[in-house]
Amino acid sequence: MKQSWRFPVVALACAFVPTAVVTSTAHASPWGCNLTAIFDQSGGPTNPIPWINGTDGNLPELQGRTSAVEYITGALSPNQTVERFNVLGTDLGIMWDNGAGQVLTVFGDTVGLSSNPACGVVGDWRSNVLFRSADGNLSDGMSIDSSPVDRPNRSREIIDSLKVTGVETSSIPTSGIEVGGVQYVNYMSVRSWGGSGEWVTNFSQIASSRDNGETWQVEPASARPNLPLTGNANFQMGSFVKDGGYVYNFGTPSGRFGEARLSRVKEASIVDVAAYEYWDGKAWVPNNPDVATPVLDGDVSELSVQYNNYLGKFVAMYSNEWGALVLRTADQLTGPWSAPDVVIEPGAVPGLYGAYMHPWSQGQDLYFLATTWSDYNVMLMKTTL
Prior knowledge:
The protein contains four helices and 24 strands.
């Protein structure tokens, strides 16, 4: 049965935590084992270790035009992310071209092997991590070259979070882009996880890096509080696209049950929320997110948008309310967008979410990253256009 998106009552009472907007330069949290916030409430697995978590660790076998290529992360990944970065389990995998011959990839809540025997095997929770890759041949997988670390063989958290349920549970990246040699990540401050596909955010915000993702600084002028009646509630998650001197941002509400709306800003003003314009269905309206009308209808989850040279069109990929992974195309970012084309049928890969396209994937074979809850790891997949 379809689950309707709803705006939780708690968001009306305390939708914004002002002290969380202006944070210091991101830093890694201490090694720990409190995984309550990411597993018990979000419905995720007890751990990402094959066989122990009830899976065999094999890639899903699909019929038709879509296939799984390899695990990018986890115990069975050729990238050896456990040994090199203590990344045992993670999700998402949002990719963008850094403008200097690499693809940067940010992940969400991440766990590794615990350093505390009292915690069990799984611990070392980080809200997010980043990998770099210069691999242009994706047919045999995606090699990871490096990651920002805070000690040998440990990827550090690049955007910190309080990790206090009901205040700020985590800071989850939703999009990334390079502008003028600077890297930008849009992330959401998650206050609490709700039922399946539901969560409440405090705000969304941009963080920037001038050293290729090594260190990050939050940009307070970019903050979008999750407050009712302002329209910013519809831009808690994003998908960046550059076109014609503008950065376009497709926005969706907290959770997985909302339509996508569109904003844009001149590249030089990307961190100034007051400089954005919003598509009202007919024209661009300055500095008024409340007028934004949906450009992608239906329930849009973990959206990825980019231009595809093979098709000569913009492509959007996301998971819908039925658990299918779909693809839509348009000549312009404002639409009209085609009807959803199902890339992976509902239930073909149980618990599948995320469909983040590789920015260098411009041919008939489209490569993207996706996650399953049961494995709690990210895999490279391919579909034929």
